[in-house]
Amino acid sequence: MGTRLRAARPRRRARPRSEDHETRRRLLETAAELFADHGFAGVTVREISRAARANLAAVNYHFGDKLGLYAEVVQAAIDAMRETGAAAMQASGPAEERLRTFIRVHLERIVGKGQGSWIHRLMNREMEAPTPELDRVVAQGIRPRIEYLSRIVAELMGCPVGDDRVPRVVASIQGQFLIYARNPIASRLMPRWRPTPEALAELADHIAEFSIAGIRGLGRRG
Length: 222
Fold this sequence. Notes:
This protein is mainly α. The chain contains ten helices and no strands.
């Protein structure tokens, strides 16, 4: 009796590469908004997949799991932060000019364009409920610009970067940005202030002048 031949299973057609890229893009963009609004623990893979119009298995296929997707979202945020840092640190010349450029770029991108963005909201979530990804945010996205600003401050004060006053001055400069970031308290204290290009330019000049005067004063006191 001859061997019975089985019909060959039809081969699954490979998914077009462009379709893969489109699905991955939708998952990342959707996850960025949902994670920014609800935090890592506040959103499920099912909710992300549904909102992104993707198969439930697509997250595992593209990112391994929910944590892998979150890591990709955080990396996108870090890349944007590093781009801003690179623009702010491109100035040459005297320390005062480098400080003015640093302040202007960060105000334009963080207080101006970044107000309400998913990156701004995601970082607020990370500060409220830190995940293991926060260490990477600090190391790659924040620490380089803090170190750069510390070198400028030390140069203006005429002291070593390790001087105890340097981190306090850096924190004071950074704090002047934060009061103008969108938050319920700032909107009540300064209800009429809007981050228009003119207002941001005027604010950048004020923060620079105020900071340089303070730094010079501390430097003279020794």
